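Field log, afternoon session.

UNIT: design team B
ACTIVITY: writing a sequence onto a fixed backbone
BACKBONE:
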């Protein structure tokens, strides 16, 4: 099983990173993708991936940090990438945290999409209260041939279907296990099996029954078990299918 999106580079893991990594593999985990959110965390993601088997990384600047974005700095990281780099992300738009700087967020998002196209890498999108703008940008800049995933999807089923029609993949965190996540449950229950995969977003969004504690990649199993029961499916079967989706999307192999 793969955790397609975790922040092992977060300072909440500074004291016990090796244990967190080991616990994931001991729980039956197969691979993890450590996600960058600014230049520093992207560099740390690379270091973690390069020093561990079956850990991959992404680089990118999150919309919350768009003021610090510098295209040539990110391109330098692309030029010095290792073979563990699997995507550009997390990038996107966040109007929940800040709607005053929309134009800047869009500029930085588009710049990173263009780099992803240039280097032929899929993108991992963070989107909060900005679905329509993200959708319009995806249509206009059509990065869909390189692969697009909406991380921690929490929009409507109707919008999910529009995205799926464009070829976008969705990924789900432990937030689908939360009692009030009515929309997300409806989405993850009804979309086609070849359109999504799982992530933890650790150290955030811990699934039930550990909600409130620090999240770890091993908890991805709690989320997949929950979704298997929602869909009335065998857990092993849903893991097999969604792992296959992730392997294809990120172009990686693991057991
Ligand atoms: Ni994240």
């Amino acid at each position: 099983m793969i955790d397609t999106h975790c922040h092992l580079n977060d300072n909440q893991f500074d004291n016990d990173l090796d244990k967190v990594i080991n616990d994931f593999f001991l729980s039956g985990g197969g691979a993890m993708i450590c996600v960058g959110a600014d230049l520093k965390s992207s560099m740390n993601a690379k270091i973690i991936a390069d020093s561990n088997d079956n850990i991959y990384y992404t680089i990118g600047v999150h919309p919350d940090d768009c003021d610090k974005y510098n295209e040539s700095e990110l391109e330098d990281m692309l030029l010095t990438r290792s073979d563990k780099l699997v995507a550009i992300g997390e990038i996107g738009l966040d109007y929940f945290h800040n709607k005053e700087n929309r134009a800047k967020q869009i500029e930085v998002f588009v710049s990173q999409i263009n780099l992803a196209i240039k280097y032929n890498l899929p993108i991992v999108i963070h989107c909060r209260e900005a679905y329509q703008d993200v959708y319009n940008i995806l249509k206009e800049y059509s990065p869909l041939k390189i692969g697009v995933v909406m991380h921690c999807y929490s929009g409507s089923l109707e919008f999910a279907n529009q995205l799926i029609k464009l070829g976008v993949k969705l990924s789900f965190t432990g937030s689908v296990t939360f009692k009030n996540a009515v929309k997300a449950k409806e989405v993850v229950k009804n979309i086609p099996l070849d359109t999504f995969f799982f992530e933890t977003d650790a150290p955030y969004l811990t699934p039930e029954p550990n909600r409130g504690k620090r999240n770890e990649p091993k908890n991805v199993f709690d989320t997949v078990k929950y979704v298997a029961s929602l869909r009335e499916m065998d857990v092993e079967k849903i893991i097999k299918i969604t792992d296959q989706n992730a392997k294809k999307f990120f172009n990686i192999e693991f057991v």
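LOG NOTE: The domain at 2-250 is CATH 3.20.20.140 (TIM Barrel).
NEXT ACTIVITY: expression trials, pending approval
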